[in-house]
Amino acid sequence: MSSQIDHLLTETRRFAPSPEFAASAVGTAELYERAAADREGFWADQARELHWHKPFTQVLDWSNPPFAEWFADGELNVAYNCLDRHVEAGLGDRVALLWEGEPGDDRTVTYGELTDEVKRLANVLTGLGIEQGDRVAIYMPMIPEAVAAMLAVARVGAVHSVVFGGFSADSLRTRIDDAGAKLVITADGGYRKGKVSPLKPAVDQALADRGAGPQLTVEHVIVVRRGGNDIEWNDERDLWWHDVVPAASPDHEAQAFPAENPLFILYTSGTTGKPKGILHTSGGYLTQAAFTNRVVHDLHAETDVYWCTADIGWVTGHSYVTYGPLANGATQVLYEGTPDTPHSGRSWEIIQKYGVTIYYTAPTAIRSFMKVGRQVPAQYDLSSIRLLGSVGEPINPEAWMWYRKVIGGKKAPIVDTWWQTETGAIMISALPGVTETKPGSAQVALPGISIDVVDEEGNRVGEGNGGLLVITEPWPSMLRGIWGDPDRFVETYWEKFQKQGYYFAGDGARLDDDGDIWLMGRVDDVMNVSGHRLSTTEIESALVAHESTAEAAVVGASDETTGQAVVAFVIIKQSYLDAHSPDGLATSLRQWVGEQIGPIARPRDVYIVGELPKTRSGKIMRRLLRDVAEGREVGDTTTLADTAVMSVISAQLK
Ligand code: WT7
User: Fold this and answer.
1) At which positions is CoA bound (predicted)?
2) Best mutation site among 418, 522, 534 for ligand 1, i.e. most ligand atoms within 8 A of its Cβ?
3) Looking at the whole model, is its pTM more than 0.90?
């Protein structure tokens, strides 16, 4: 890490926007001036880009921090903003989704068609008793119905909780129970890595396997047929989408809901074992998602073909697949599968096929493309690309430069966008027509956003120094809380800098001499693997839940492709050590974690050790384990209860 930091600080390459790009850019320098002069007025202007059934008269209510309200006396319908208003403006024939299935089947969905589907589904939901405020879990592959499901839930004022299709039945159950979902919308299965990956069976398992757990709140399951895989059916509970949706009325008038009506819950990993249900509401969220999508991605909805590769199971898929682009009337690619199926040029093939102009992906994907080599993208015509984006983790300057040259043809500006599930929308990024970009730096707070880097006491560190990233003023798309746990909301984000009233993001950052921000990774026990957030504690809990494990410690070790990788150190009970080979134990533990949480949480390495490094008070010193996992000389061990333990561990791993 320290050599990486040195490297970053010597980065001197600069890329100014071309005059042609700047001339027609959506985001301009005036936005900064306007926002600096009147921050709330600036956000009110952005909010007025939406359709309000009842216009708001108040902008921000911060009288009860950290519980913010934005545009609170206004009323709107989020789905109406993403659909009907475009159709009413005569854009019903504009393509909303250019859908590409992994096997190569494709479908085009216009705004008119999507509106029709969402209206019918909204009628189905109402018929099933879904009302304002009810929670609906969505566990789906990347198909148009997934987007329609989110919008239909929003349309009736209910709250969706999308669970990533790669999560296990267990993770799904925890999320369904925590939210008290009344309905699940799923598919039989979806295509991933060349085969059908089943989803409905996991829903059945999540709903059936109650044990001593909470009572089942789910009344119905709506199932889209996609994979064609065999599934079990519960006549009382399950409904086929293709039976109920086409049969429903296409007439549905969007009702207005208050700006602060909850829109969605999205679970994310924190520093404890239990995932947090991050709560977002309607008016402020949609305002900032749509605004940032326009100015950061330089979206010209009439002409651009936009592609954000995120799954709808993550916040990026919420803000930059569903809500931002559709609120803006954009035409976008939606791809079901993985970028290397059936061949390593799949992404470039899609860009060529649809003439993608804006491409937004994660550094981990870029690094795996680099590994395969530039000869693969070179076989495709990528000349349509005019803007590139990066999100989810720091992008190293090498990957940035490769992205620019090989994918962007040395002309497309790159925006490195920093934000979080909690922030709801992009917070730090270049504006591509304004900012001179620097490889590896996310750079500047967006207009209307106030960011700083401070020390442990909350004092500004100033240019040239490092510290903790904070958000110093409330913002429209900020989380409104953690579902069912207001205390945890306050503790996690607001207690550390309570005196100043700052939001603590959990990221380390540096300011360079120009005042540009360089993100330095998490400062807590949260890992970032392929741009996905994982909690060390959550994986440790899964490991010790296995009968063979006595104790476990997990660290995020740097990894060439995935940014960080999960590395586990486990102490195995003697009886298991006697009866099984270490390799066999390690394999079954990797598999176990995959089943408990999901394949993304599966450790890259499992090391079986005799002891773990602990302080005198019994706290595991993960820093030392990270040194070992990254093949470095082990750091200062003087605070260990037993200073010899690290040499024993290091020797064991050689
Ligand atoms: C964490 C949030 C933002 C949507 C996807 C991830 C890291 C995110 C960047 C970036 C450096 C980044 C941070 C942040 N992160 N974007 N451009 N540069 N780090 O959302 O799962 O909520 O994770 O991802 O560490 O805290 P998330």
Assistant:
1) 192-195, 316, 530
2) 418
3) yes
